[in-house]
Amino acid sequence: MTVVLFTCAGQRVDIVTAFRRAGATTVATDLSELAPALYAADHRELIPPVGDPTYIETVAALVRRYEASLVVPLTDLDHEVLAANRDAIPALVLLAGIDAIRRCADKWLAHCFFEEVGLPTPPTWLPDALPEDIPFPVLVKARRGFGSRGIYRASNRQELDYFLARVDAPSMVQQACAGEEFSIDVFCDLESRCLNAVPRTMIESKGGETIKGKTIKDRDLIEHGARVAEALGIVGPANVQCFREPDGRLPVTDVNPRFGGGFPLPTAAGSRYPELALELAAGGRPEPRLGEFEDGVVLTRYFGEMILHEVAGRLEVMPQDALTVEHPRGT
Ligand SMILES: Nc1ncnc2c1ncn2[C@@H]1O[C@H](COP(=O)(O)OP(=O)(O)O)[C@@H](O)[C@H]1O
Ligand SMILES: [Mg+2]
Looking at the CA of 141, which ligand is closest? Predict the structure, then answer.
């Protein structure tokens, strides 16, 4: 059985569970014992923060101890350190190379790259090189922002100056797109060949997380997702975000080189990304199956929880039976 080690497992119960269903033995790691995904895995391990000098050796030691053949990072937090030190980890690290990671982490670098390779990207400027005739509305966006943080919409020069004077994170100014926003969950093999791309609509999202969305079998979006992923050199999963402008262009606004927040939707639609990841770890070379997924599958989200209690000095999942509370009936 393939053993998969997840780093920065956090709240990604959905991903750990999907790999278990795909037949993997799962080891979840996080720095906090309250990360819910730890309790969805076969084994859990607390590890130091990403910035700790022993982070990589800790991950490598766990890979050896559990004989894991695949490492899957679940947030962006450790991408750079993992991509830069993958040779020190005796397993397949399901992550793009360091150049792709740096480009995806810095929205300005991503924009420059897309311009260079001829992929559509919204007109974007650095604050000290703004043109006289900026086409408002524009967004002030933190270059290394995430979760929709550090984004401010300006309708005129006065508003733009106001935000630029107040942001402290390195930022850029980007033309606001007018059309509908889409998110494409892609998966590439070790040579960055795109194996599938599942676009979805963003019916509702909060803080960058999809709350409601629907898979859409749209040829242009599928091919666009694949083209962007292959140009960047994605390995494993990525989430490509773009708008469809009135003229049909699909400017890319954000790429996350990991499983997207909407992961349960492409999974339910038949993406089989966990199975593909396990196949790559076993040395297989799965064939691309672009567009093979179910159209019109809808995700609608709610809060979930994990109830824990202490057993012999260690937190364990509390059995559901113990949660049954007798409610007094009638008065
Ligand atoms: N150029 C743009 N035009 C219109 N809306 C945008 C643009 N860029 C970002 N947004 C909106 O802001 C949200 C977050 O921006 P994004 O670039 O995805 O950053 P992140 O997800 O890393 O915080 C997007 O999902 C989108 O709704
Ligand atoms: Mg985004």
Answer: 1
Q: How far is CA 301 from CA 21, 180, 205, in A?
A: 21, 21, 10
Tell me the CATH number at 227.
3.30.470.20
Nearest atom of ligand 1 to the alpha carbon of 150: 23
Residue 254 Cα to ligand 1 middle (Å) = 7
In a domain, 55, yes or no: yes
Ligand 1: distance of its center to the CA of 146 in Å? 9
The contacts of residue 90 (CB under 8 Å, 6+ apart) are 60, 63, 64
pLDDT digits (tens, 9 = 90+) for 162-218: 999 999 999 999 999 999 999 999 999 999 999 999 999 999 988 778 899 999 999
Tokens standing for 157?
């020069």
Indicate left, alpha or beta for 150 from its phi (over 0: left) and psi (-120 to 50: alpha): left
Same domain, 199 and 292: yes
- CATH number for the domain spanning 39: value is 3.40.50.20
Which single residue is written with the structure tokens 């694949």? 226
Q: Tell me the residue range of the domain where 156 lies.
A: 123-175
Give the Cβ contact number of residue 190 at 10 Å. Answer: 12
Contact yes or no for 271/200 (Cβ under 8 A) = no
Residue 183 shares a structural domain with residue 282:
yes
Contacts with 98 (C-beta within 8 Å, 6 or more apart), sequence order = 80, 83, 84
Residues with CB under 5 A from ligand 2 (ion): 208, 241, 254
**Is residue 214 domain-resident?**
yes
Same domain assignment for residues 182 and 171 = no
Q: How many domains does the chain have?
A: 3
Q: Is 207 in the pocket of ligand 1 (CB under 6 A)?
A: no
Atom 15 (ligand 1) nearest CA: 148
Among protein residues, the one with the nearest Cα to ligand 1's atom 13 is 148
39 has a pLDDT exceeding 80: yes
Is the pTM higher than 0.85? yes
**Same domain membership, residue 286 and residue 203:** yes
